[in-house]
Amino acid sequence: MSHTLPLTLTFLGTGTSCGVPVIGCDCAVCRSLDPRDHRYRCCALVESATTRILIDCGPDIREQMLREPFRRIDGVLLTHIHYDHVGGLDDLRPFCTFGDISVYADRETVDGLHATMPYVFAEHLYPGVPRLHLHSIAHYQAFSIGDIPVMPIRVMHDKLPITAFRFGSLAYITDMKSIDDKGVEALAGIETLVVNALRFSPDHHSHMLVDDAVAFARRTGARQTFFTHCTHDIGLHDDANARLPEGFMFAFDGMKVSI
Fold first, then answer.
1. Which secondary structure element, helix H or strand E, spans residue 220, and what is its range?
2. What is the DSSP string of 66-97?
3. CA–CA separation, 159 and 178 (whole Å)
4. Smallest Cα–Cα separation from 179: which of 140, 232, 148, 143?
5. Average per-residue pLDDT in the chain?
6. Pairwise CA distance, residues 100 & 113, whole Å
7. Is the pLDDT of residue 123 over 90?
8. Any residues with CB less than 8 A from the CB of 161 and at least 6 apart, and which?
9. What are phi and psi of 105, to 5 degrees?
10. pLDDT at 186 over 80
11. Quick check: 2 pLDDT over 80?
12. pTM, whole model, 2 decimals?
């Protein structure tokens, strides 16, 4: 699934479900004035010269998209149904001025959206609701959005199967605890990996820690790896990055990477 299409990856949010600063926390990270220590809920943009894809759409999406040029969204890819990844879908209404928005997710997530946002998918729509078209996708069945190829890959969020995405030489994975051999094989040849790294310690039942993420990235052979979905326990940005091996970096909100 290799290609030479130039892509830009924008980290709209690199935090966990609580975001950073965490409400009520007085730690050094939550009090930091460095904007790289402030993390909205996890999502990203992948863009070519002609196509724009949003990965996940959490409850901070309004603030996140205000920082970006107002242009058409050609597709939304959802990793799973948890609120911090889908809670902002209603806020995509302004982008419907460019036309209806296609949303791609596995069957469980599609069914979950029908249950949590029934007013968006009713037979008689309330005026002003976002015009979202749901597309059920299957793991390892490739498709394209515009000129960007997409390969959905199955990973495990504890016992919940969720979706990672590969775009040619780029792979984007969040909320992963484990992956089977088939998933690793589907990542062969990637050069840039984005993957979740919750904190350095202690262990978590459904997310990888930093050491887990480093070991996984090395299995894939990625040339550069960016960590996302991080808590305030990671520490201050510069201090945390200083603890990483060469070729690894904690991403921060607003960071752009050319692929």
1. helix 210-220
2. HTS------EEE-S---HHHHTTGGGGGGGGG
3. 9
4. 140
5. 96
6. 17
7. no
8. 106, 108, 139, 154, 155
9. -160, 165
10. yes
11. no
12. 0.96
